[in-house]
Structure formats: C-alpha cells, structure tokens
Amino acid sequence: MIYHALLQFDEIRICETSFKIGIYCFSTYFFYIRELITAIIPVIGSWMERKDFILEVYKDKRTVFKLSDIAMLFPLEDNNYLSDRVGYYVQTGRVLNPRKGIYAKPGYNPLELANVLYTPSYVSLEYVLQQAGVVFQYDSRCTSVSYLSREVVIDGKTYSYRRIREDCIMDMTGITRTSDHVNMATPERAFLDMLYLNKDFFVDNVNLLDRQLIGRILPAYKSAALEKRVAKLLQNG
Known about the structure:
The chain has 237 residues and is α+β, with helices and mostly antiparallel strands. The protein is 55% helix and 15% strand. The protein is built from 9 helices and 9 strands.
C-alpha cells in the first residue's frame, strides 16, 4: 500500500514537472515570437514607406523640391532616411537632381526651379515683360531678381539673376504666387525692376501697364531717380 502511494506521488511529481516544462517551453516560444514580431514590424513599416515615398512626392503639386520640402511630406522620418530614399530614386531616374541639393520630378516647371535655385527670388525682368507683350524682343532666358547676380545653365536652359536690394525683394507689392507655385512679378513690377537696374531700358508698349499699380509699387525702391525715369516714360508713352 505504501508502494502504491509512493508510485502515485512520483506520478504527480512527474506530471507537475511536465507541466512546468510545458509552461517554460510556452513562455520561451512566446518570448521568441514576440521578439520576432517586434523585429519584423519596423521592416514591414519601412517597406511600406518605401513603396509610398515616390507616390507621396508625385502627388504633391510642386515639381521642384529641396530636402527640407520633402521632409515636410514625411514628418516622422529623419533626414538620413529621406536622403537615402531620394538618392535611390535619383539613381533609378524617377527623381531628377538638376543641381546639388535640389530635386525635381521629370518634366518639372523651369520657373519653379528658378525660384528654388536662389532664394529669395522671383521671376521678373525680360521674361515677364516679354510674356505680357510689353517688349517684343525674344529672350529665351528665365530671368529673375534675387539677392545676387548669377547666370547658370541647367538642362540646356539659362537662368539669369540680377541683384537688387534685399529689402526691395522682400516687399511683395506687385509679386504674385501663381497656381503652379511660382513667385512672379506682375508686368508693372517687372517694368520697375528693369528700369531700376537699367536706366536706358526701352519699352515697346508701355500702354499695357497699369499706371496706378506702378504708383503703388514705386515706394518699395526708395529711389527718386527711378521715380523721375518712370514719370518720363509714362508721359511719353
């Protein structure tokens, strides 16, 4: 009888030990599964973000970006990751790199690039006056006003910048933001920019300009000499 009792006790101990081993194995298995899931989730998330990266850039209405602009589309990502992603898509040709630190979609807007190359700047001078029919002479350059004078050629197109006082650049009177994200002078502002930079500039059709708007923009230049030249041209026109 004692023998049977001991035998039953041993069986209980074996069952208890087996149960503990089972619990340990399950705990170990659960731990490794949890670690595996923890490791996989960031990889899956990163893969999904990589899939969405080019889509998010292409969805944006802008065609030219700096890395800081792209970072605004992905506020949760660090710059190293974004730089790697941009570099990858530049290599595959899905994103262009027209100049160091500047990225663009294929078929980008050159006027938008003109704004991004040097900031602050806005498209003005011959380009705007020609488009408005104020001057007739053809000029293929994209002309802008900025804080420096510079001329660069990118993808076969010439971007020309003329320097003007920075406080004048920052006065937005007569500067519009177009629907395609371009800061551009009105013909009246371009006319004044041109006369400010070139006192001998000839205007073919001054009657197309809004004289009241010219009067509102003029104070930005703080130039009595410019005011005299403008008055003379408008009087003769």
